[in-house]
Specification:
GO molecular function, one term: ATP binding
Subcellular location: Cytoplasm
CATH topology of the domain at 111-308: Rossmann fold
Pfam family, one: MTR4_beta-barrel
Domain Helicase C-terminal: 420-617
Strand order of the largest sheet: 1-9-2-8-7-3-6-4-5
Biased composition (Low complexity): 393-405
CATH superfamily of the domain at 111-308: P-loop containing nucleotide triphosphate hydrolases
CATH architecture of the domain at 111-308: 3-Layer(aba) Sandwich
Distance between the termini: 70 Å
Shape: elongated
Length: 1127
């Protein structure tokens, strides 16, 4: 029985030891039981089966000879379910080599951290025959990764920027070549894919697959974007069978809000035979992420990392022409920061004087400008240019700035550049968080010339070769001419607004070392492998598309990591520009030495994902949700919850034996719970009534909620809330009342008698029952209270045989306000405690209890307290009816009622815990399950799937739509919105699916295009409203705005008609680079629409999309990448 699960062994052992049953199992029954127990997918049928099994095991039926624990549960698990079984352990597999003698019983630890010195020391003995030789000594983390690759294991390499992670990718390619299998390298950015194609081309048999390029798809080693690999997996492409390695570069891109989900989808869908290589910058939770992948793929993931950068960094502040070192060797230098702060204070006090009341060291700046990115205050004006007006790099753009502002910019940058040149700290990358800021900064340096004659010659020859592939008019584009003017002087610009060919020229020249100063946005740090000697931050704030905010430590580390060239520099320098302020020390420290950003799941459901998964038999949507990184921790705990459930099922439940026959305690207890809810509601309402406050004064009897399960407590208000104590001070009886507790002079007193009692106390009957001469009075010895409480609350004691307590009570703890009052001595109860006073108060409270009742009559909420709210009155009457119904139940007044209520409470808690466990182990507990159901309802209503969730024609068409929003694109086709448009008009309207800039200038459209725009927008609004109706979290207006941006409709229309590129640029304020990117993506959209037309059988649309695609594929927009074709 050793091979079976521990939990069920225990079950069987208990049953056998107690001789409760004789168990006869068939082999099939036991195997099904074990298989079910090891699975993460515990559905309702399984839980019910386990419950039934447990009940059978614990039933004392000695005559029963056999039973079947599982019964007829024959629902087979899918292969993926078996794959993810938490109990699957291959105990026969032993790891070879002296460094892998870790015990196999480490359980479900899938991520194994590296750091074994033995591998680095004896690397050549462990790996005597390398698949590829490197002309340099490998680092420790590289040796570890290669060792594990040779063993056929998956690895996660989390290393610093420029540490040499690409070596691991190269080795995976070499192994695939050696084994005659295939390898796939995926990258988040097309630029990286193109660069890697160029780097690997001379070493391996390489192919390239991106959205617009397909080169040698039959090659052994394929470089592609992650989205293309996802499409292959959804389609079940034949190539997948041949793949041995998949390399994910820049894995930290999983944090991207828009595209991060793609990484999770691909990792989840990769077949088990494929090994994974993950390359990432340093992240604090690399082991956690690797654990998720390992658990999902049921394979060990080796985590290797670097402890420090190969080239250490020093961080400095640059202020007023001087450099102040603030961090070295990851240690923050407070002294350097203080020196910079002191210089700042001195300079500002000399110029402006320190304003009274202002913070020390805070500059006297204009309101609203402090701490901003220097370019953000004018962002709105700069981003929306007037027509026929551009901000281009180079000579053609110089005229756009006044000479004064240029001189100001130049005077800002030149001291820094001169400082860097003097210290030989070039080349330098200056990060500006605005395209306009990059252009203006470069243009301002019109007087600087940083290159030698040989550099100028190299730049001129390179540019001539690169731009010679452009036709005449394109060579004279302002951006092309302007960038060459800058480059010849050793100055470069790099941002998303540049033409692709211009960006590549800048990147290649920077890598050659002839560009000395490069003004760039942060895309250069993510998409280009080009380290520099120095990195400069123009600002520590950025606009992220939604708001202006401070840089995150992860963003800073990514960009700062470009400083320091391995093999050339002993140290990399990072400088932070300080214009009119010095950053706060805490902010600066957190930024420089803070932890990088954690890898977080960005998983979200999309309609395309749902439709694809509904067409794939091996993987359900629920499976995809369970295996996402977002659900990792919840799913990881399922075996523990299953064990807990089994333990609860084994516990015998106590039965309630009623002495009056069949028990009706269940019904009584349910009424009791309902009555408690109503009572709490009514009590809260009563305490808020104005009339209640008039009654709640010292001496008023009240019933207070008990802190235990016993009955509520009778008490008297001693003191009202005050400034020092916001609660009522109440004297309550806590012990049981017996006749012997009454003092003789009170217990023998006639109920109607009136007169003086000990220490001036007496019971005051309700006002309506008092005579005219009934008055409150107290003994002459009673002192007036000062209102100060000198006893420690709660104050406990006993008097006259009864326990009491003076405690502070909240409003909500007062259960009811009684009709009676008693006279109290507040002074001797709270300030000078007197045993006699306590004893008398106890006796008066006991005396106030009517015969046969625990509490005096309560004030009527409607008559006495003037409750008028209809809902409150109805609930009050419902409460009274419920009490009346409870009194008619045969359990009411039963001597065992208290015991049975306690048992019922235990059973309710037990059932609640069981239900909660079942829920947590079911699919319904998945975070995105409600949204999934809503999206399914949407797909049913618009007939993408039928009632059985079989994908229909419209759903198959939607699966082809990857570049635009799938529902809007599909509805556009099925509503024949493109039928009455010419190919040029159709492709122009389609640009709304792929254009991404929000604040472009309004295009000038023909009436036909304006109508088409309105139709498409109305369709988006209708779909948004439909989703909102089905509780998908979508705002219709926002949905339409986010997925349809019509800013380039006019530009694309003119381009498709054959207008030169220089002319179409005059029609919009959108930068040339974004225009090119949109048209390139638009060609991909044309292909998708063409495939959709083929599925629909619409030959006219198919032909129209072919014509449209050919119309836009020309000239500079589709010029081949320099990385792919070479110079």
């Amino acid at each position: 029985m050793d091979k079976y699960s521990v939990q069920f062994d225990d079950l069987f052992k208990i049953a056998w030891e107690e001789d409760a049953v004789n168990n006869v199992f068939t082999e099939d029954d036991v195997q099904q039981l074990v298989r079910d127990e090891g699975s993460y997918e515990i559905d309702e049928r399984k839980v019910d089966t386990l419950q039934g099994a447990s009940a059978t095991l614990t039933r004392p039926d000695t005559d029963k000879q056999e039973f079947d624990v599982i019964g007829d549960v024959s629902e087979a698990q899918t292969d993926l379910d078996k794959m993810l079984s938490s109990e699957v352990q291959d105990t026969h597999r032993e790891l070879s080599g002296s460094v892998d003698d870790k015990p196999a019983q480490e359980g479900m630890v899938w991520a194994l951290a590296g750091g074994d010195e033995d591998i680095a020391t004896n690397f050549h003995r462990f790996v005597p025959d390398m698949a590829i030789e490197f002309p340099f000594e490998l680092d420790k983390f590289q040796k570890e990764a290669i060792y594990y690759l040779e063993k056929g294991e998956s690895v996660f390499v989390a290393a610093h920027t420029s540490a040499g992670k690409t070596v691991v990718a190269e080795y995976a390619f070499a192994l695939a070549t050696k084994h005659c299998t295939r390898a796939v390298y995926t990258a988040p950015i097309k630029t990286i894919s193109n660069q890697k194609y160029r780097d690997f081309c001379g070493k391996f048999d390489v192919g390239l697959l991106t959205g617009d390029v397909s080169i040698r798809p039959e090659a052994t080693c394929l470089i592609m974007t992650t989205e293309i690999l996802r499409s292959m997996l959804y389609r079940g492409a034949d190539i997948i069978r041949d793949i041995e390695w998949v390399i994910f570069d820049e894995v930290h891109y999983v944090n991207d809000a828009e595209r991060g989900v793609v990484w999770e989808e691909v990792i989840i869908m990769l077949p088990k035979h494929i090994n994974i290589v993950l390359l990432s910058a340093t992240v604090p939770n690399a082991v956690e992420f690797a654990e998720w992948i390992g658990r999902t793929k049921q394979k060990k993931i080796r985590v290797t990392s670097t402890n420090k950068r190969p080239v250490p960094l020093e961080h400095c502040l640059f202020y007023s022409g001087e450099t102040y070192k603030v961090c070295e060797k990851d240690m923050f230098l407070t002294q350097g920061f203080r020196e910079a702060k002191d210089t700042f204070k001195m300079k500002n006090s000399n110029k402006l004087g320190v304003k009274p009341g202002s913070k020390s060291g805070t500059p006297a700046t204009r309101p609203g400008t402090q701490g901003r990115n220097p370019d953000t205050s004018s962002r709105g004006k700069d981003q929306k240019h007037p027509k026929h007006h551009h901000t281009n790099s180079g000579a053609a753009a110089i005229q756009q700035s006044s000479s004064g502002s240029k001189r100001s910019e130049s005077s800002f940058w030149m001291p820094l550049i001169n400082n860097l040149l003097k210290k030989s700290l070039v080349p330098v990358v200056i990060f500006c968080f605005s395209k306009n800021r990059c252009d203006r900064s470069a243009d301002s340096m019109f007087g600087a010339d940083l290159t030698s004659n040989s550099d100028k010659s190299e730049i001129r020859v390179f540019c001539d070769k690169a731009f010679s592939r452009l036709k005449g008019s394109d060579r004279n584009l302002p951006q092309v001419v302007g960038i060459q003017s800058l480059l010849r002087r050793g100055i470069g610009v790099h941002h998303a607004g540049l033409l692709p060919i211009v960006k590549e020229v800048v990147e290649m020249l920077f890598c050659r070392g002839v560009i000395k100063v490069l003004f760039s946005t942060e895309t250069f740090a993510m998409g280009v492998n080009a380290p520099a000697r120095t990195v400069v931050f123009d600002s520590l704030r950025k606009f992220d598309g939604k708001e202006h905010r401070k840089l995150l430590p992860g963003e800073y580390i990514q960009m700062a990591g470009r400083a320091g060239r391995r093999g050339l520099d002993t140290i990399g320098t990072v400088m932070i520009m300080c214009r009119d302020e010095i950053p706060e020390e805490s902010d600066l420290k957190n930024l420089i030495v803070g932890k990088p950003t954690r890898l977080e799941s960005q998983f979200r459901l999309t309609y395309t994902m749902i439709l694809h998964l509904l067409r794939v038999e091996e993987l359900k949507v629920e499976d995809m949700l369970k295996r996402s990184f977002a659900e990792f921790h919840a799913q990881k705990k399922l075996p523990e919850k299953e064990e807990l459930l089994l333990q609860m099922l084994r516990q015998p439940t106590k039965t309630i034996e009623c002495i009056k026959g069949e028990p009706s305690i269940e019904e009584y207890y349910d009424m009791f719970l309902e009555a408690e809810k109503l009572r709490e509601y009514i009590t809260e309402a009563i305490m808020q009534l104005p009339a209640s406050q008039q009654f709640l004064g010292p001496g008023r009897l009240v019933v207070v909620e008990s802190k235990s399960d016993d009955d509520h407590l009778l008490g008297v208000i001693v003191k009202n809330p005050s400034g020092s104590l916001k609660q009522y001070v109440v004297f309550v009886l806590t012990g049981e009342c017996t006749s012997s507790a009454l003092a003789p002079n009170l217990s023998n007193q006639n109920d109607n008698a009136q007169g003086e009692v000990q220490q001036g106390y007496m019971v005051i009957p309700p006002k309506g029952k008092r005579g005219m001469d009934d008055e409150f009075f107290s003994a002459g010895s009673t002192r007036k209270s000062s209102g100060v409480i000198k006893i420690k609350l709660p104050h406990k004691g006993d008097a006259s045989g009864m326990g009491f307590e003076v405690r502070a009570v909240e409003n909500k703890e007062i259960v009811s306000i009684c009709t009676s009052k008693i006279k109290i001595d507040q002074f001797r109860l709270l300030e000078e405690p007197s045993k006699t006073v306590y004893s008398t108060t106890v006796q008066l409270l006991i005396k106030a209890q009517p015969d046969g009742h625990k509490y005096p009559p309560a004030l009527d909420p409607i008559k006495d307290l003037k409750m008028k709210d209809m809902d409150q009155v109805q609930k009050y009457h419902a409460y009274n009816r419920l009490l009346e119904k409870m009194s008619e139940n045969k359990c009411h007044g039963c001597i065992k009622l208290k015991e049975h209520k306690s048992l019922m409470k235990e059973q309710k808690v037990y059932k609640t815990q069981m239900d909660e466990l079942k829920y947590q182990m079911s699919d319904e507990a998945l975070q995105q399950m409600p949204q999934f159901q809503g999206r399914i309802d949407v797909l049913k209503e618009i007939q993408y799937v039928d009632s059985d969730l079989v994908v229909q024609l419209k759903g198959r068409v939607a699966c082809e739509m990857n570049s635009g929003e799938e529902l809007i694109s599909t509805e556009c086709l099925f509503e024949n919105q493109l039928d009455d448009l010419e190919p040029e008009e159709a492709v122009a309207i389609m640009s709304a699916f792929v254009f991404q800039q929000r604040n472009a200038s309004e295009p000038s459209l023909t009436p036909k295009l304006a109508d088409a725009k309105k139709r498409l927008y109305d369709t988006a609004i209708r779909l948004g409203q439909l989703q909102k109706h089905h509780e998908v979290p979508v705002d219709p207006e926002e949905y339409a705005r986010d997925n349809l941006k019509f800013g380039l409709v006019e530009v694309v229309y003119e381009w498709a008609k054959g207008t030169p590129f220089a002319d179409i640029c005059e029609l919009t304020d959108v930068s040339e680079g974004l225009i090119v990117r949109t048209i390139v993506r638009l060609d991909e959209t044309c292909r998708e629409f063409r495939n959709a037309a083929s599925i629909m059988g619409n030959s006219a649309l198919f032909k129209k999309m072919e014509i449209a695609s050919n119309a836009i594929k020309r000239d500079i927009v589709f010029s081949a990448s320099l990385y792919v074709t070479g110079i």
